[in-house]
Design goal:
The structure holds 2 protein chains of 2 kinds. Chain A is of the alpha/beta class. Chain A has 10 helices and 13 strands. Classes of the chains: A alpha/beta, B mainly alpha. Chain B: It holds the Pfam family BPD_transp_1.
Chain lengths: 261, 223
C-alpha cells in the first residue's frame, strides 16, 4: 500500500518535472506557437499595476507587458498576481514573464532569471527645484520629512549629518502633507510616492536630489531560456533607445527615466 | 505566555525618553496655564460679558468641543500654512492644546460662575467694589474653588491627549515610544515604559494641581 502510494507520488513528481522541462525547452517558441504572451502583473501596486475604472488592469507594468507582446507580434494575456505568488506563477509555468515591479536579489536569482532593468525603483531625498541639495552632507541645517520606521528613515538616519533636522511622521500621508504645506524643506521617500505627489500636480514639485537606495525593477523569466531572455532584453533596449519606455515612465511616474537605468 | 521581555534598549534610548518626557511636560505646562487663562476669559464673556461678544465665544467653544483634537491639530499644522501661518510642530501642538483646553475649561468655569448666588454679586457691589473687583474676588475665586476638581481632571485629560502630537512629528513621550518601537521592534516594552511614565506624570500632575488648589483656596485646605 505504502509502496504503491510512493510510486504514485514519484510518478507525479517525475511527470511534473518532465512537463516542466518540456515547457522549458524553448519558451520563446512556445509563446510564438501559442500566439499569446502570458504575463504576471500586479493589481494592487499603483502606479505599476492597479485596477482601472473599467476593471481592467492599468499601470507601468501593464504598459510594459503590452509593449513586449506587441514587439513579439503576439497577443498579451495579463495574469494578476500578488507580490507573494508572482515567482511561483513563473516556476509552475502559469506565466511566461513576470512584469510585477520585481527587484533583483541573490535568493531570487537562484530560482529565476532576470532581464535588464525596465523601471526605476529607488528611495531618495526629494525637494523642489529651488532647494540646493546634492548630497547627504548638504542636509546640514535643513529639515527633511520621512515616514517613521520606513527603509528610507533607517538609511537617512545613518547618512544624514548630525545637524540635519529629521522630522518623522506616522505614515506617508503625514510626510506628504508636511512637504506640501512647507513644514519640511525636503522629503526622503520612494520614487513611487514622489510620483503620487507629482500626479496631483502640486504647487511644490518634488525632484530627486540624491539617491538613498536604488533597486530597479526587472522582468523575471524562467531559468535557461537564452532565446527568450535575448528577445526581452532586445525589446527593452530598443524601447529605451526609441523613447517608448521613457514615455511609459513619464505617464506613470511623472519623470524621465534615470540615465543609468 | 511565551514572550521574552527585553529592556536592553533602555540604555541606548533613554535620552529619547527623557527628551520626550520634557516635551510632554512643556506642552502641558504651557497648555495648562494658557488654556485655563483663556478659559477664564471665555467663561467671563459667556456669563457676564458684553452681549455682542457672547455669540463669538459660544461659536468658538462649540466648534472646539464638537471636533476631534487630532483634526484641530492637523488643521493648525497642515492647514494654516496655506493661509500663510507657518507654525513649527511644537508651536502648533502648544496652540492646539491651549485652544482645546480653553474651550473645555471655559464651560467648566462658566458652570462655577453661574452657580454663584445672586446675593454674592450684590454683596460685592455693596462693599463699593468695581465690577472687575467683584468678579475677581467675590465671583471667580469661589467659582474656581467649586469646580477645581473638574478642572484638574480636564487638565489631566488634555495632558494624556497630547499623545497625538506625535502625529505631526512633535517629539513627545509618545513619539519616543513609537520611535523606539520602529528601531528595536520591542513594541510591548516600549509601550509598557511609556504607559508607566504617563501614569506617573498624571499622578504627579493631579498632586500638583491639588497643591495649587490649596494655595489659591486656603479656606478649602483648612476644612
Amino acid at each position: 500500500m505504502l509502496s504503491r502510494r510512493l510510486f504514485v507520488a514519484v510518478a507525479t513528481i517525475a511527470t511534473t518535472i518532465g512537463f516542466g522541462s518540456v515547457a522549458k525547452a524553448d519558451a520563446l517558441g512556445d509563446i510564438e506557437a501559442r500566439g499569446t504572451l502570458r504575463v504576471a502583473v500586479p493589481q494592487d501596486f499603483p502606479p505599476f499595476g492597479s485596477v482601472g475604472p473599467d476593471m481592467a488592469p492599468v499601470g507601468y507594468d501593464i504598459d510594459m507587458a503590452n509593449l513586449i507582446a506587441e514587439k513579439m507580434g503576439v497577443k498579451v494575456e495579463l495574469v494578476p498576481v500578488t507580490s507573494a505568488n508572482r515567482i511561483p506563477y513563473l516556476q509552475t509555468n502559469k506565466v511566461d514573464l513576470v512584469i510585477s515591479s520585481l527587484g533583483k536579489n541573490p535568493d531570487r536569482e537562484k530560482v529565476i532569471d532576470f532581464s535588464t532593468a525596465y523601471a526605476p525603483f529607488y528611495n531618495g531625498v526629494f525637494a523642489p527645484a529651488e532647494v540646493a541639495l546634492g548630497k547627504p552632507e548638504e542636509l546640514t541645517g535643513k529639515t527633511v520629512g520621512v515616514t517613521r520606521g520606513a527603509v528610507e528613515d533607517l538609511e537617512l538616519t545613518k547618512i544624514a549629518p548630525a545637524d540635519a533636522v529629521i522630522k518623522r511622521y506616522e505614515d506617508n500621508n503625514g510626510t506628504i502633507s508636511a512637504f506640501l504645506s512647507g513644514q519640511v524643506e525636503a522629503v526622503a521617500t520612494g520614487n513611487v510616492v514622489a510620483a503620487a505627489i507629482l500626479a496631483k500636480n502640486p504647487p511644490k514639485r518634488p525632484e530627486l536630489k540624491f539617491l538613498i537606495k536604488n533597486s530597479p525593477c526587472y522582468i523575471g523569466l524562467s531559468k535557461e531560456q537564452p532565446a527568450l531572455l535575448e528577445k526581452v532584453n532586445g525589446i527593452i533596449s530598443a524601447a529605451k533607445a526609441d523613447g517608448s519606455l521613457n514615455a511609459i515612465a513619464q505617464k506613470w511616474l511623472g519623470t524621465d527615466l534615470p540615465a543609468d537605468l | 505566555m511565551n514572550y521574552q521581555f527585553d529592556f536592553g534598549w533602555l540604555f541606548e534610548y533613554y535620552p529619547q525618553i527623557v527628551k520626550g518626557i520634557a516635551i510632554t511636560i512643556e506642552l502641558i505646562a504651557v497648555g495648562g496655564v494658557a488654556g485655563i487663562s483663556l478659559g477664564i476669559v471665555c467663561a467671563w464673556v459667556r456669563a457676564l460679558g458684553p452681549a455682542w461678544l457672547k455669540p463669538v465665544v459660544a461659536a468658538y467653544v462649540e466648534l472646539i468641543r464638537n471636533t476631534p483634537f487630532l483634526i484641530q491639530l492637523f488643521f493648525i499644522f497642515f492647514g494654516l500654512p496655506s493661509l500663510g501661518l507657518q507654525l513649527g510642530e511644537l508651536q502648533a501642538a502648544n496652540l492646539a492644546m491651549v485652544v482645546n483646553l480653553g474651550a473645555y475649561s471655559s464651560e467648566i468655569i462658566r458652570a462655577g460662575i453661574q452657580a454663584t448666588p445672586r446675593g454674592q454679586f450684590e454683596a460685592g457691589a455693596s462693599l463699593a467694589m468695581s465690577p472687575f473687583e467683584t468678579f475677581r474676588h467675590v465671583v471667580l475665586v469661589p467659582s474656581l474653588e467649586r469646580i477645581w476638581p473638574a478642572l484638574s481632571s480636564q487638565v489631566v485629560i488634555v495632558m494624556l491627549g497630547s499623545a497625538v502630537v506625535s502625529q505631526i512629528a512633535a517629539e513627545d513621550l509618545t513619539f519616543a515610544a513609537n520611535f523606539i518601537q520602529s528601531r528595536t521592534f520591542r513594541a510591548f516594552e516600549a509601550y509598557i515604559v511609556s504607559t508607566a511614565v504617563y501614569l506617573l506624570l498624571a499622578i504627579l500632575l493631579r498632586q500638583l494641581l491639588a497643591m495649587v488648589g490649596w494655595a489659591i483656596f486656603p479656606k478649602r485646605a483648612a476644612r
